[in-house]
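Tip: read the tokens left to right.
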């Protein structure tokens, strides 16, 4: 099962890696204007066209197109290695499909001119072989979708090859695409619009737990290290794009505006928690937020005088 859009140039490698040893190949295209359908047909794939509804929901719709209960979910820039193929075949020959709902395996990234086999990038265990009767794509509706299984999950040893960054040009293109992907962000904002206004937080403990739940969920979906309040974001391996997305989640859930310059004032997860606490206190006292009606940067020190996290002294310490 492959969900793709305008990937005709790279589809052959992915399709060739499964051709001849799987019962069917399904390629679900969305908004495609290149020759992806013709390329897929050359490998005997069944081609469907789906409306794009975000990664999670589109992939779930594609999952339902399979004739068989067990599905191997791939992206167009991935390739099943010989070792992984043998492990998958052994999984079924050994009857493990009768006792498991899925299987995960390492995903190895090709970065410009080499395989990355260390750090956070490897083994990057990916749950992609699933019994679709007991599995579905969950997680965020727009990005960071993740497979969820109701049952035991086996661990295979063979690598799934991921050619996400074959050269420097593709890396830059992906960064630019991410920064321009405002439509996806707007869709996600619309989905939380109806729920954020219903949020009622009465105590500091409730506020802290809610903000932590948002932050921890982000860490889980991005497969980063577990959250520690007094660590720095850099300690968790968050880069600038990660941190900006985290801010977008928090400001959209709670209705606050945090611009890029103010973002730099947050050094630790605890800073977010304290910020939200004092925003709630401000709103309770004045029945509005410091940013309401302006949508411009505000001075944190003026908005919340005496808050040590945003003082010059605290900036030096933290």
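Filled-in amino acids:
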């Amino acid at each position: 099962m492959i969900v793709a859009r305008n990937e005709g140039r790279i589809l052959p490698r992915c399709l060739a890696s499964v051709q001849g040893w799987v019962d069917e190949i399904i390629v679900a295209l969305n908004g495609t204007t290149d020759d992806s359908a013709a390329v897929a047909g050359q490998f005997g794939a069944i081609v469907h066209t789906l409306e794009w509804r975000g990664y999670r929901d589109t992939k779930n719709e594609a999952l339902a197109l399979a004739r068989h209960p067990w599905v191997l979910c791939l992206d167009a820039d991935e390739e099943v290695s010989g070792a992984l193929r043998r492990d998958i075949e052994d999984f079924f020959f050994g009857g493990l499909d009768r006792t498991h709902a899925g299987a995960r395996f390492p995903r190895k990234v090709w970065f410009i001119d080499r395989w990355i086999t260390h750090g956070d990038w490897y083994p990057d265990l990916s749950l992609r072989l699933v019994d679709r009767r007991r599995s579905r794509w969950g997680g965020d509706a727009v990005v960071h979708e993740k497979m969820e299984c109701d049952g035991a999950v086996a661990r295979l040893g063979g690598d799934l090859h991921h050619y996400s960054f074959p050269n420097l040009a593709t890396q830059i293109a992906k960064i630019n695409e991410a920064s321009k992907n405002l439509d996806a962000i707007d869709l996600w904002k619309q989905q939380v619009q109806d729920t954020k206004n219903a949020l009622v937080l009465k105590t500091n403990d409730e506020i802290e737990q809610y903000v932590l739940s948002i932050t921890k969920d982000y860490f889980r979906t991005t497969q980063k290290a577990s959250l520690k309040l007094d660590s720095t974001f850099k300690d968790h391996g968050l880069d600038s794009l990660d941190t900006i997305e985290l801010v977008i989640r928090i400001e959209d859930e709670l209705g606050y505006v945090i611009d890029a310059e103010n973002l730099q004032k947050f050094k630790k997860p605890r800073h977010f928690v304290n910020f939200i606490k004092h925003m709630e206190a401000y709103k309770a006292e004045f029945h509005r937020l410091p940013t309401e009606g302006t949508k411009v940067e505000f001075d944190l020190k003026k908005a919340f005088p005496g808050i040590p996290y945003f003082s010059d002294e605290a900036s030096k310490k933290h």
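The chain has two domains: 2-174, 182-317. The radius of gyration is 23 Å.
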